[in-house]
Structures are given as C-alpha cells and as structure tokens.
Amino acid sequence: MPDHTFRELTSLAEALGLCREHIGARDTSCQVVPLSEAAGQVLAVSVQADAPLPHFPRSTMDGYAVRASDTFSASPAAPGMLELVGTVQIGHPPYLTLQAGQAVEIPTGGMLPGGADAVLMLEYAERLGGNDIQAFRPVAPGQHVQHVGEDMPEGAEALRAGMLLTSAHIACWRRWAKPR
User: How many contiguous H segments (helices) and E segments (strands) does the chain have?
Assistant: First the structure.
C-alpha cells in the first residue's frame, strides 16, 4: 500500500530557488528601443496622453453639420430649410464658420466647422436643387457629435506599465502619447 501521508512543505524561498534553477533568471533591465521595434516589448513606465482624443469635435454620422437651434421646428409636415454652404473633407479642417440657417455636408469622423453644434443625419434631410436642404427632424445640441477628449482626456493613462505592447499600441502611440 502506498503511503498517503503529507510530505514536508517547501518554503517560498526554496520554491523560488528551484524555479530560478530550472527556468533561469529573468532579465528585468530596462532599455530604450526605437518605436518601430517596440511591439512585443513590455512597457517599463506608464504613458499618459499628451493631447485629448479626439482633439477636435467630430461627426459620428454622415449628414450635415448644423446649428441645432436652426432645426428645432423641423418636422415631416413642416421641414426646416437650410442653405448648404460647403463640404467637410476627412483629414482637413473646415474652412468656414456656420451662420444661422446654414449647413455643411460632413462625413462620419469629419471635423465640425465653427458655429456647428450638431449633425443632422442624411436620413432626416433631403437635398433639393442648388444649395437648399430640407430638415425633417430636429437635432439637439451635441447630437451625433463626439466631443474633444471624449475617448481619452489629456493626461489620462493611455498605456499601463507592464503591458505587452502590440502593433495597435504602437500605431496609436505615434499620434497621442508620451512617456512620463
């Protein structure tokens, strides 16, 4: 019959010694590597965002950047009229500031022009001839807009010390983070 008695326990120090003996010591020294070689490395220090993300108010829908107050009375029975005065291109800041009764065509992710505080979805508008747009629904201030810092405010911890860096971290780091 086998002996089922408890054996002597190994202390923590002895267990760590056995691990080091069989696995080897880990190199825990820090080194600076080019960002292009950082994927697969473990981050030694936390990284904070040096700018808010996004750093500009942007559209979350395809549609028209508007002043919300210009749409408050819009309905299917009595559409509001707006004048189309331009188009926002992705990656380019708008070149104008909206005035009362104006709208600018904007894609998802586009930077809101000055004076705009909401986005009227394409589905709730109809472009007539020329520069006339009918709005069939009102929008509230801030509707379909992602505000500055909504994803990450400036100074927030973007990457935590001890993280294994991936190519996705590296791509983001190039745009918005610095080590602290």
Answer: 2, 11
